[in-house]
């Protein structure tokens, strides 16, 4: 069993839900996973107490949550010594369009350049439009963004674009990678299962190895 920190930033809760799903997959493999909101990090939290770390953030009007950027920057030395992953949610990853996918990848590149962190695994997933939770001005801005991205401009309803099968596949891939790196065999698996799983390329929406 390994300990995995899943630290995330969220606007209206979609990234928090993704973080919970990641934790559930890790737990199913017999690992001790903990999800923490980047805006509510305990003062005594130390990256060194975890075997692996997964950071998650969403894109809101072109930017990630500042708390996640600051955490990655402040802890990049500790992150560099253990298996890590980065998960990003955005409308750009919600559509099958080459230009939008490139845009989503560009957000990640900016994040990594700004923080100086290089994760081992990266997953790009569609986020959500929570019109019901937006204030008046933000609802107008998000409607304008959605018009060009997904076309979902009916503000009387919310929209979810996250592919949960891809999220679970990403979590399993990262867990297998961590197990191989640390030489850990999860309950019910054999050493061969760990090696085979970690060697597979994750084919999720825009996921890539760095």
From TrEMBL:
Flavodoxin-like domain mapped to chain residues: 4-169
Q: Which residues form a coiled coil?
A: none
Highest taxon, organism lineage:
Archaea
Q: Where is the composition biased (Basic and acidic residues)?
A: 200-210
Region Disordered, residue ranges: 188-210
Name of protein: Flavodoxin domain-containing protein
One Pfam family from the record: Flavodoxin_5
PROSITE patterns for the chain: FLAVODOXIN (PS00201), FLAVODOXIN_LIKE (PS50902)
Q: Which InterPro entries match?
A: Flavodoxin/NO_synth, Flavodoxin_CS, Flavodoxin_dom, Flavoprotein-like_sf, Protoporphyrinogen_IX_DH
């Amino acid at each position: 069993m390994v300990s995995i920190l899943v630290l995330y930033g969220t606007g209206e809760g979609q990234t928090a839900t993704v973080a919970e799903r990641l934790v559930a997959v890790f737990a199913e493999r017999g690992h001790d996973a903990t999800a923490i909101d980047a805006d509510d990090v305990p003062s005594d939290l130390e990256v060194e107490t975890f075997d692996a770390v997964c950071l998650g953030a969403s894109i809101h009007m072109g930017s990630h949550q500042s708390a996640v950027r600051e955490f990655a920057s402040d802890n990049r030395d500790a992150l560099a010594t253990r298996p890590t992953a980065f998960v990003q949610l955005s409308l750009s990853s919600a559509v099958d369009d080459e230009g939008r996918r490139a845009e989503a990848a560009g957000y990640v590149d900016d994040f990594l350049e700004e923080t100086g962190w290089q994760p081992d695994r990266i997953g790009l997933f569609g986020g959500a439009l929570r019109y019901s939770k937006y204030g008046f001005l933000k609802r107008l801005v998000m409607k304008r963004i959605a018009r060009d991205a997904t076309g979902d401009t009916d503000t009387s309803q919310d929209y979810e674009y996250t592919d949960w099968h891809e999220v679970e596949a990403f979590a399993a891939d990262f867990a297998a990678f961590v197990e191989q790196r640390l030489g850990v065999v999860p309950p019910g698996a054999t050493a061969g299962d760990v090696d085979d799983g970690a060697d597979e390329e994750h084919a999720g929406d825009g996921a890539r190895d760095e």
